[in-house]
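so the lab meeting is tmrw and i was supposed to have these ready like two days ago... anyway. pasting both below. for each one the top line is the aa sequence and the line under it is the structure tokens. i havent really looked at them closely yet so no promises
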Amino acid sequence: MRTSFLAGLLVLLSSFAALAQEATSQPSPSEPSAIQALLQEQSALILKSSRKTIAPAIAALADSGLPQAQAVLEAWQAKALWMRKSDGVFFRGEKLEAKRYQLFDFHNDAPVGEFAKSDLKQIKPNSGIRAMIATALVQFQLTDPDPIRRAEALTAIERAPAAALLAPLRASIRSETDPVLKARKSRIEQLLTIAHDPDEARRIATIKTMSDDLGLDVRATLNPLVVTQLQAFEGAVPAVLNIATEITPGEAALSREAAYDLLVAAKLAPALVTRDDIRATLAAHIEGGKVGGVPIAQLNTDAARTRAYTALVEADLAPALVGETQITAHLAKHSFAEVYQEPSAAITEAAEAALEAISARVAMGQSLDLTLDALSLASIYFLAAIGLAITFGVMGVINMAHGEFIMMGAYTGYVVQQVIPNHTVSILVAVPLAFAVTFAAGVAMERLVIRWLYNRPLETLLATFGISIALQQLAKNIFGTQARPLTAPGWLDGAWVINDVVSISYIRIAIFALALIFLGVFLFIMRRTRLGLETRAVTQNRAMAGSMGINPERVNMLTFGLGSGIAGIAGVAIGLFAKVTSELGSDYIVQSFMTVVVGGVGNIWGTLAGATMIGFFQKGVEWLNPSNTLAAQTYMIIFIIVFIQFRPRGIIALKGRAAGD
């Protein structure tokens, strides 16, 4: 019984203590809260709402350490800050109905009642003030429990890095629990340290740490540290300045005219009086038909106008003329120098060394990136030309419809994707199906047309050219003239990013791998299968192969079908990144023929070498003249014409019938 009484007494005393503490924490009605007192101190600046004078008020709130400061700034930024006219107290307001608002106390966010709009004054910050408030809010958002808010704060710092944000950002890194945000905070902290940290040694150490980073943000942070400005000084250049170089007027870097203009801009020398200035001054001082004692009728020569102007100068009615003697004297009394905007010489030296190291790495990265692009283009040309290399090399047929087999393969992939929506499965189905479709089309073309035109190259060229036009028109009739999408699987989206300079898309990597697979398959067919043995025999000596029991016509048919089928698979691959239209094949037929001819007719290694040479040459020309891709193709054709003059059989010449042809 006694124990229960004591327990109840303790509970009662605890309740009284809690109530007493709550009462002491709440300000009395006559006593403003700490946040309200701060708002009253800054009331004049807040009500004025001028971007030029508001900074101290925002800084006072942000640096106050009061828990309500964030709510005040957020309400202010959202135009929800209101002042009650009767007593000048600030509240957060929410609109209820027409011209009535519910006010909330900033101390505890408790409602204080409804008021008419006529009793209140809304604080409406302009866009400039809202931007300043957003910067001040960043320090609160860096430790916000919501990771999205913390990420938004980091984005705000990246957009507007300021020295005031360095300390709160640095303080928030240790407590950051998200590893991605922590790494991002650390990087931004390093960039702010380079730009704004007052500790020179720390800035230099951070610059050296990031000197191997190729990020654009690093270069954007370092570049302002090495920016110079041409300045003029009366007498010698001050030794306290961080001087990049001193310049003598009259040198290539600074002409006498530019140097004197700089003196005039700095108000260290009188401005030059131009002819227009003289005419305007004379026109403004006409009295009694004369100017400076010279009749107006006589002011038709430079000498007369100069005499009249000199009279005005002597009468203190115009500024004096500045001649070469005066210009020389002024230039002799002044010094000129390129001055770093960064006052510390040690920091500019470290920044220049870091930028030089980064530039070297960027150059290496660009070379690697250009090489990857060239290899990617070479793999595309190789895929497009490998089928043509088979038909042209073995049969000697100039197949102008080869590009249309590429187009047929691309359209086959599109049709498959309409039936099978899963992009990965559809591509796996489209590759063998495209081979089958174009293989059949090639066999049909060889049986119906090509077999009757052997050893008649001109007729073959015209016939296949007509077939290509017919196939293009057929594609337009079936699929229309609009481009059709051939979508790559999701796992081929994006790119392999090595650094900020070097990257290559996954589709290009896949095409490069496919080209290597085709190379291996072709070598296997030609060296390990009966068809390959017969094909090589027909290629080297058609008559002898026929006498050994090989049917050359059957070999030609299967070989033509094989080349057409490979072109169809190439069409599926090319369609993943190119527009699938009826003209798709015509975009690659010229490059395919050039690849085969340059590499060596009928030789797979020659085709690979030709594709590599053309790909690297075209990318090299595009790098030298990136704004004109047509020029790159023009130079490439000229290069190939010159190359063929010296090596008419290509890089790797083929022996046998094809070489004789």
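ok protien two:
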Amino acid sequence: MTTITPVETDASDVEHGEYEEVTVPVLVIGAGAAGARTAIALAEQGIDSLVVGKRDFGDAHTVWAAGGINAALGSLDPDDDWAIHAADTIDEGHYLNDPTAVETVTRAMPDRIRELDEWGTEFARTPDGKIDQRYFGAQSFRRTCFVGDRTGEAILDTLVERAQSLEIPYRENVMVTKLLSDGERAYGAVASDMDDGHEILFRASHVVLAAGGFSALWSRHSSRDDENTGDGPALALDAGASLLDVEFVQFHPTGMVADPEWDDDWNGRLVTEAVRGEGGRLYNAEGERFMERYSPDQMELDARDVVARAIQTEVDAGRGTADGGVYLDISHRDRSFIRERLPNMYERFQSLGVDLAEEPVEVAPTAHYTMGGVDIDFATGETAVDRLYAVGETTAGVHGANRLGGNSLAETVALGAIVGDHVATTYEPREVDPLPEHVRAIAEREFDRLAALAAADGDEDPDALIAELRALLWEHAGIRRDGPSLADGRTAVAALRERARHIGLAGDRSDRPFEYAVDLGFMLTLADAVLGAAARRTESRGAHYRTDYPDVDPDWRRNVLVTLGDGDEVRLSTRTVGAPSERVQRALDEGYELDYHHLE
């Protein structure tokens, strides 16, 4: 993993301060829905855990998953079931999904939704009192449960309240910089307190990574700039685990195009798929409803990769807006309908001077979700490193080459419960083992590195380097890719890595530049892995589109694995994908498909 040690300062020559040592049975890194649900499962079985996060408890990327969460309840379409949900997921993932992962999640989701309902999530209801469900792109049936257009926020609020009722401890503003692992077993983590900069050593019997994905590596992204920077996957890779499918990043079709009068932070923020799920239409600058050219049957509710590429094609052909976007319009719906079904979107745009009930909004593709991540066993959540687990967007396997809308929240609560339950069954109530000397030495070296990083006095700005890296990924590993550009991208990443050794901080560890310097190390690791895996996959499939290999290659129904070799160089290998169960295969063979025209 890229760990930034300034060349101007020898880490061994810098004194680090006294560090705090914390012992806990299970350390959960990440405070979104996946981490919270894992901790709840542990607490319900009497196992103590500590949840740590870089932000406040409840302030996580989960809140941006606004449109809904999938479960085959059959509230409106009784023919739906978990196997059809699984088939839709595999079909949308272009048959690269781990079938066990898919079936594990889709089987579990009806129970997880009923559980959230019992815990207080105020899902929308049908007139007869059932949990309401809406259409989402590429779904065969109405399967997406929702709370207006703030579903992720509502679910996270429910989980946080549940965790607090169980008195699960949480530490805010803690940035984990390294896992304590000898490549065979995880023992804990090293972290920095972002409030005052003091060092922390966490000693744990089990470690769970729930630290999100890496979509913020691209210059247009739906995350906040300081989240989804690749922390979880990079930490796992450094600890000895493998990554899977990192070449697949989902560019959501409808990110905001910021008006010059707005705060630039709005640029790329998500306009939820629920707008299209409730009948929103896409038009180019010439007023054409252009999805008729690309997907006359499913229109705006085709798969996200299809719609995103269609928008980019319109823009490249000169039919986009001056700012490189298109228009999303739901003004044909009644104002009362929009306010009831899309309250957050309505209020957001009202606050910016745009009336959704009267006019369209300008949108363009934005990096939104990373299908790739840590390779795990979906029966347990465990990585290749003993006692190291991963959940949520940090992982890979469920989504394959493209994620089915509404499945991100589903994955967090389904797998969180599984991991918590599994750890609870394997944990032996006793004191946490003392750290072996070689592992404590790893911690000491990390403390030295962090001290040197804080004292660095070079002339490179970490925030500026991050901006360059994001532009580089957008150019070389964006919606369209090709071999020479990917190779150039890797060369550029190597140059940025060398420049990162000359950063200048010379400030307080609680300052944002120190955080950016740590984030930059994670981001450089993932950038090289993404570019390498994308170059290795010589075909187009799902969200990975190669202009020099524009077709799906049946021989490439394989996953690309990433490991670290000697000298921390990225090593790539492949493995074949397993077969779905007979029941799911039957559902795939039936070829269920959304009838879009219900929305017309």
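from a quick look at the 2nd one: The CA atoms of residues 221 and 266 lie 10 Å apart. The chain has 16 helices and 18 strands. will dig more after coffe
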